[in-house]
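Weekly structure sync, notes
Attendees: PL (lead), two postdocs, one rotation student
Agenda item 3: pending single-chain targets
PL asked that the sequence for the first pending target be pasted directly into the notes so everyone works from the same version. It is reproduced below exactly as submitted, 433 residues in total.
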Amino acid sequence: MKRQISFGQALATVVGSVIGAGVFFKIGTITAQTGSTSMTLFVWILAGIISIASGLTISEIAASLKINGAIKYLDYTYGRVWGFLFGWAQMIVYFPAQIGALSSIFGVQFVSLFGIKARYSNLIAILLVLFLLGINLIGTKFSSKMQSVITILKIIPIALIIIWGLFNPAKIPAPIIPLTVGTGHSFPTAISQGLLSALFAFEGWIVVTNLANEVKNPEKDLSRAIILGLSAITLIYVLINYTFMTVLPIDQLTNNNNAAFQASMKLFGQFGGKLVTVGILISVYGAVNAFMLTGMHTPYILAQDNLLPFSNKIGKANIHTGVPVVGAFIVDAIAIVMILLGNFTVLTDMLVFVMWTFNTMLSVAVIILRKREPELKRPFKVPWYPIIPIISVIGGIFIVVSTIINQFVLSIIGIGLTLLGLPIYYYMQKKNN
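Predicted structure, written out during the meeting:
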């Protein structure tokens, strides 16, 4: 594959992958889980801190190991089976669930905005997947450039909401201290469930490592794109959620999937509210495109090592565009099934649980490699070592354990889908031998 992705395009992929539906639609879930404005903002900040710590930690591996993506990082550190399971989980859970959940939200908002019957929302979602599949088949360079444009466009409604909201003379009180939870909520449950929901809005940054072989200067640009992107995203999320809570009272935000639209209507009036909703649709569109752009590389990476059935087909990229066509079809086909069967909250919670299981292993990998290979050339070193990696590891363990306790069935399904890859792995290992 050609090195054709610049730092700006890598940064746009990080921001474009992360900023999608979560920033607009998780406020209703989180306020229901926390019951207070202070705890709602706290879990957003905490999610940002954990994500930045994880990004700083994993960036050291991305800069040090000249191999393609987080799958290979796990291969290198723990052995091939762990890298395969991570890739398998990405292929059948993470990317399809992201694409499916985001496309479903696009469909719901699209039919609502244009007054189309609600039963057509799934059709709109599937058409979006097929349309973006076609766009990405044109080529990685084209879709990356389009992602840069979409990223700029998606920032516009966010900036408008934040600026108008901060200078809104009719702000309602949204106390951020003392840190409390609502009546009938327990402190530990509010933090754990709220954090899990908030982390969905931060998901996506790690997928840029799948493009390592196509980034022009991966030793420097990957880590810079991840760190700068996550820092900017955390600031944006805190500001926009604070704005929502100064425009709508918390009882109107709780379990409200249209909070962004209603807040925009209050800030800008009916026409302005609809215009901002169009911007939100563009934001979701950009997130789906970013996950499609990076997700189709996962089956390709696994097939390059002959770890999937029909690897000779899946592991090929189009000679003209560099696009792994079969990989794109696999991920998008599963996403369409999830659109037809899925539930937004269930899908998002499951993918957060599965991904943070492996993210935690990647953070531990930095500590392992520091001890195992002290002479390894490290163009980027995680600052304040080992404090930052420890924050990332503790945060990841908290997410995984609290999910198992609070959502046992969901966690078992996530683990089960991941472990389904083991028979395929050992079958292919036996076949290869």
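Discussion points:
- The chain has a mean pLDDT of 84.
- Residues 264 and 270 are 8 Å apart (CA to CA).
Action: rotation student to compare against the earlier draft before next sync.
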